[in-house]
Amino acid sequence: MSEHKSETWRHCVVVGAGLLGASLAGAGKARGLFERVTGVGRSQGNLETAKSRGFLDAATSDLAAACADADLVVLATPVRTALEQLAEVAAAVSASCVITDVGSVKGPIVAEARRLGLAGRFLGAHPLAGKAESGAGAADIELFRGARVVLTPCHVTSARLRERMRSLWLDLDAHVLEMSAAEHDEALATSSHLPQMVAYVLSAAADAAPARERIVELAASGFRDTTRLAASDPDMWTDIAGLNRVALLSAIDDFAVLWTKLRQAVDRSDEVALRSLIDAARRLRKEVAP
Question: Strand pairing of 72-75 and 34-40?
Answer without folding.
Answer: unpaired
